[in-house]
Amino acid sequence: MKTTLVTGGAGFIGSHLVEELLKEGRRVVVLDDLSSGKLENLPKSENLEFIEGSITDRKLLREIFSEFKFKTVFHLAAVPSVELSVREPLKTHEVNCNGTIYLLEEAKKRGVDRFIFSSSAAVYGNRPELPKREDHPVEPVTPYGVDKYASERFVVNSYFLYGLKATALRFFNVYGERQDSSSPYSGVISIFIDRFIRFKNGENVTVDVFGDGRQTRDFVYVKDVVRALLLCESSNEAFGEVFNVGTGRETSLLDLIKTLKEITGVSPPVIFKPPRKGDIKRSYADITKLSNLGYKPGYSLNEGLKRTYLWE
Ligand code: UD1
Questions:
Q1: Which domains does the chain carry?
Q2: What was the ipTM of the complex prediction?
Q3: Ligand 1 pocket, mutate which of 119, 173, 220 (most atoms under 8 A from CB)
Q4: What is the arithmetic mean of pLDDT over 27-37?
Q5: Which residues are catalytic?
Q6: pLDDT digits over 71-102, tens only?
Q7: Is residue 29 a contact partner of residue 23, using CB atoms and an 8 Å limit?
Q8: What ligand 1 atom has the least distance to the C-alpha of 215?
Q9: Mean pLDDT across 224-246
């Protein structure tokens, strides 16, 4: 049986994808160096093989690709910290850009059928166009965003140059179970849910809003992201293409807090702090292109937040 590779499969989004692939009865290999992923994110299954290692280890990649005949590669491994990419651009470049090329080289050589790459809305940077469309200008402002954009081009160009059926997905603000809330640069939903729960448990915590709370994001539930990944894998129209993955809805932090109050039944104190340097005021995706493949977000923000909250 042909096998599916998920790089970064022990991470937040990767582990949800792995779960779904196993449910479909597929054989899955996860390659993850556990730098931000965790073994306990992965389900137990005889159809799952875990390999601890980095996508920058070319010898390891050669071994894995010759041992398994991968049908599909889902490439989700990355150093996800934008902040670290600013402090250590060369180190994160090796993973976030060169790592992608190392994988593409193997995929090409070994005749992998589909290659799906997880890019980011960070490629749009501070461009003013709204909602963000795939053919809008990009202007990544951090090494993380630059590497995602470069990787994206290496990936989709592999279709035109070598016939590798490759696709890149620009994830907007993904949230859901197993997202890490421990760093100040974690996704805002994971941080806020953590504060609401701690407040409910009697802790003296606050919800800190950087700026006036009117900034908006396109918050997309992780299970919808998994559906987008699988849809692009199965679609012949996705070869050599880039797709936004969001909901097409714009939500302000103030609305997010209001919804969390309704779901949790508590109202922790909200403190307004100065805006973050370089913070983007508004962001949401135009998802027409992905919708044309049949994508429709399955979870409202309310539903997604409830599920995330109940899991915590
Ligand atoms: C995301 C990245 C960020 C990157 C940016 C560029 C994540 C978690 N963040 O940021 O590193 O620079 O894309 O595209 O992937 N906020 C609060 N209080 C908090 C935490 C955040 O008010 O405790 C605010 C932020 O200032 C921001 C909003 O919430 O305005 C969303 O923050 P975040 O979840 O970090 O996402 P992005 O800003 O989109």
A1: 3-174+220-245 (3.40.50.720), 176-218+249-284+299-311 (3.90.25.10)
A2: 0.93
A3: 173
A4: 97
A5: 144
A6: 999 999 999 999 999 999 999 999 999 999 99
A7: no
A8: 30
A9: 98
Query: Which residues, 6+ apart, have CB-to-CB distance to 139 below 8 Å?
Result: 124, 125, 126, 127
d(CA 294, CA 292): 5
Residue nearest to ligand 1 atom 28, measured at CA: 188
Q: What percent of the chain has pLDDT over 90?
A: 96
Those residues with Cβ within 8 angstroms of residue 186's Cβ, 6 or more apart along the chain or in another chain: 179, 180
Query: pLDDT value at position 88?
Result: 97
